[in-house]
């Protein structure tokens, strides 16, 4: 079993599947060390029990389509992202996991309901981390 495996190339860029320390899989397109190349990274949804050998080129390219814009609410665009649990939608500072029971063609309608219902959504706040030096006694 591999931890990282190149499964092919797409438009001249390497397609690599990696196993993260958390146990989930990540698909990389391109090489971050080479400037001027396309670079994209997406987590493989629900991949905790998979190995890099379980992902083929077709699946990898499907995962690399994300994040993708599926619509907008007013001036805020709605994006679908992959996550370790499946998929999530993000609109402005609202981010919510999409239940597996929601068919893909219904994601925008479902996202609209959640976005407009404050009780069902999670507001993402950016946290600023400050390093505080303390003197040890």
Explain what you see:
This protein has 137 residues and is mainly beta. The protein has helices at residues 57-63, 107-115; strands spanning 4-10, 13-19, 25-29, 40-43, 68-73, 76-83, 86-91, 94-98. Strand 6 (76-83) and strand 7 form a beta hairpin.
How are the strands ordered across the major sheet?
A: 1-2-3-4
- SS-based class: mainly beta
User: Which bin fits the share of residues in helices?
Assistant: 10-25%
Sequence stretches where pLDDT stays below 50 over 5 or more residues? 125-137
Report the count of strand segments: 8
Main sheet attributes: strand count, strand direction, barrel closure: 4 strands, antiparallel
> Alpha-carbon distance between the termini?
49 Å
The number of helices is: 2
Shape: elongated
Question: Strands, helices and their partners?
Answer:
Elements: E1 4-10, E2 13-19, E3 25-29, E4 40-43, H1 57-63, E5 68-73, E6 76-83, E7 86-91, E8 94-98, H2 107-115
Please summarize what this structure is.
By secondary structure, the chain is mainly beta. The chain has helices at 57-63, 107-115, and strands spanning 4-10, 13-19, 25-29, 40-43, 68-73, 76-83, 86-91, 94-98.
Task: Using brief descriptors, characterize the structure shown.
four-stranded antiparallel β-sheet; mainly beta; disordered C terminus; 8 strands
